[in-house]
Design goal:
The chain is of the alpha+beta class. The chain contains 5 helices and 5 strands, in the order E-E-H-E-E-E-H-H-H-H. It starts with a strand and ends in a 10-residue tail after the last helix. Keywords: 2Fe-2S, Iron, Iron-sulfur, Metal-binding, Oxidoreductase.
């Protein structure tokens, strides 16, 4: 079947099998490999993208279900001139990543959180990220980065 959508501000149209997952369409058909495949069971959040402004785990959505949608991936977060988005810059500044595998999904989830709640507290951030797994950082610096991106002080409670 032929599908079309807008991905990171660009119109795209391709023939796809009707069972093709959105994550595979983005990575394999469009070459947008920033969206990671972590578990294929919607448990890890490494594949989070925005579809019509809402966070979606791309491993759980068929590409055909995004027909006509506005899709944003991690590649679409930076400015056209390459300037990092505030969340990306905060992750870099506050060491919110180690291996980087979960980072695209974390950043996309953080962007959705800050759109919904521009000044979340530490508990709200941790609760919102419940569907995103990081095996390296222990989340401490991820929470600090999101606090910084929201314009708040980065001091958080010790765990």
């Amino acid at each position: 079947m032929k599908i079309s959508m807008t991905v990171n501000g660009k119109e795209v149209a391709r023939e796809v099998e009707d069972r093709r997952l959105l994550v595979d369409y983005l990575r394999q058909d469009l070459g947008l490999t920033g969206t990671h495949v972590g578990c294929d069971t919607s448990q890890c959040g490494a594949c989070v993208v925005h579809v019509d402004g809402e966070p979606v785990k791309a491993c759980t959505m068929l590409a055909a279900d995004a027909e006509g949608a506005q899709v944003k991936t991690i590649e679409g977060m930076a400015g056209k001139d390459g300037t990092l988005h505030a969340i990306q810059a905060a992750f870099q500044e506050h060491h919110g990543l180690q291996c980087g595998f979960c980072t695209p999904g974390m950043i996309m989830s953080a962007a959705a959180l800050l759109k919904e709640n521009p000044k979340p507290n530490e508990h709200e951030i941790r609760e919102y990220l419940d569907g995103n797994i990081c095996r390296c950082t222990g989340y401490h610096n991820i929470v600090k980065a999101i606090m910084a991106a929201s314009g708040q002080p980065v001091a958080i409670a010790a765990e």
